[in-house]
Input
Amino acid sequence: MHGLINRAIERFVRDTYGRDTWGQVVRRADLSFNEFEAMLTYEAEVTTQVLDAIAQVLGRPEAEVLEDIGTYLVSHPKVEALRRLLRFGGRTFTEFLHSLDDLPARARLAVSDLDLPVLELCEHGGGFFSLTCQWSRAGFGHVIVGLLRALADDYGALIILDHKGGGGGCEAIEIRVLNTEHATGRSFDLGARAE
Amino acid sequence: MVSGTDHTPDPNVYAMMDVLCPMHVVLDASGHIVHAGPTLRKLLKDASPIGARFNELFEVKRPHIDGTMALMLARAGTKLHLQLRGPQRTDLIGVLVAFPPGGTLGPAGGAMINLSFGISVVDAVRDFALTSSDFAATDLTIELLYLVEAKTAAMDASRTLNLRLQGAMIAAEEKAYTDTLTGLKNRRALDYVLGRLLEGEHDFALIQLDLDFFKAVNDTMGHAAGDHVLNDVARILVEETRADDIVARVGGDEFVLVLPRLTDAHRVHDIASRMIERLERPIPFAGQMCRISGSAGSALSCDYAQPSRSQMMEDADIALYAAKRAGRGRHVRYTPALRQDGGPEGRS
Output
């Protein structure tokens, strides 16, 4: 698994629960280091061990943890750079949804060895969408749910999300966009720079 | 100030162009602006451009022409490098097409110029507070901005990794070049320094120094006393040399010193003799006195037409053994005569 993904999981735990909790996770996952390097690649099991350890340390189901990671990635000030990169996907939330199919290609453009899930959006009319998420590792759909929820806030859109489950590394998410201008979203200044 | 045409151009053309090319500008036959796309108007924020002469608002930088209509039309279809006049001197690129006669697409004798930011786009987006709706939906500017930010973020992450690796590398190199007991340089460091000096054809003096009676200290007073003496010796050797001299421990009680820029045999002799004199002062350890001495042999790179590491080490070694044979506790400079007889006449 790419270090960027492991590093994001680590930052989520550190920034949300503090370094002591991260220390517990490191011990429980039996890591030989205490910090992920964003630009190195790790064995896939390492990510599984870390996610298991987080669920145990926090005493919460993994799906919930994954969803929180998705929300963290868009809403925490420390990862503002990622929010900005996602906002390049479209002017409106609906436009953004349609950019999700390009997500793996966009990621590869920046970091050529970064593999992200294959996402496919289907529009059914009346603000109703379905998104399938395919990846080597099950559960990424929950990250997407958290991410979409936070991004809808960011755009000021009102949506309802439902993770429909799935198997064989393929998960389905239902999205209902009730109002694209429900609230004033956060601004996205093209010329600004994330600190 | 629309002039130079009898026909009124179809306004739908301009409306279409506003969507397709929001940075286009329409000029009449005299080079006056009759229409400007919405993003271009944003760039010219203060004044409405309509009626102004194109070359009053934009300077044609390359090809270097004065921006009169005839010269501009002659460049139709080729790339123009332009610069916005005014406080914000943004670079632009553009291409001009002449309107066909008849005047329904645009003023006869006039032209349409489509502009773009080119490489200045990142600054321009910030300077003019542009948003994605300021660019045509097919324009790749947004993707370009995305790429700039994504690559910057990836580079920052790489830089963090590089700094960390560099820190680890320096620590590892430091360790690899250091004798752990005394903190002096080791043989690996010595080889590296000698290689660099010889490669750069810099002159230097090489001194081989062996401790005398050190084995006796180790055998009678124990290894702790021996280690203590070695550390004291290391301190003395460092104190008696300059900051950029190299003091290396290359064996149990064997040391090699490299003194860059030294070509004066008398100075080398003085330095080596002073070191030995200090080594002979008894070293207190656990209530007892450790007594050692040192023998040294030296070779000077300036004595060789083509100095080589192995030759100089060998010659310094021959001088060192001459010093030992002559009764220890002294320094001998290498001379070819030492090779023939090794007698006391080889003494420096």
